[in-house]
């Protein structure tokens, strides 16, 4: 599903015009991005959770030369699936609705 299909699906399910659904998705993206930037965990119960995590420094390899190189510590994002999303992936539609 691409962004246009998602906007159309949200508009249909919510019974709102497509342009309002697009604004809602844009706002959701902005709020989630700001929260992760601040280090807050975002939880959509049953669907997913998103959090910023610290990655430790580690040693990697240059793929062209094979030489070891130092990768500094930094931040990454962790996504965790909720129970409804896991049930949908399993094909168990009884618990999805």
UniProtKB/TrEMBL annotation:
Pfam families cross-referenced by the UniProt entry: Bac_DNA_binding (PF00216)
A Gene Ontology biological process in which this protein takes part is: chromosome condensation
Q: What is this protein called?
A: DNA-binding protein HU-beta
Task: Fetch the SUPFAM superfamilies from UniProt.
Answer: IHF-like DNA-binding proteins
Q: Which GO terms describe its molecular function?
A: DNA binding; structural constituent of chromatin
What is the superkingdom listed in this entry's lineage? Bacteria
Family indicated by similarity: Belongs to the bacterial histone-like protein family.
* Keywords noted in UniProt: DNA condensation, DNA-binding
List the GO terms this entry assigns under cellular component, sorted alphabetically.
cytosol
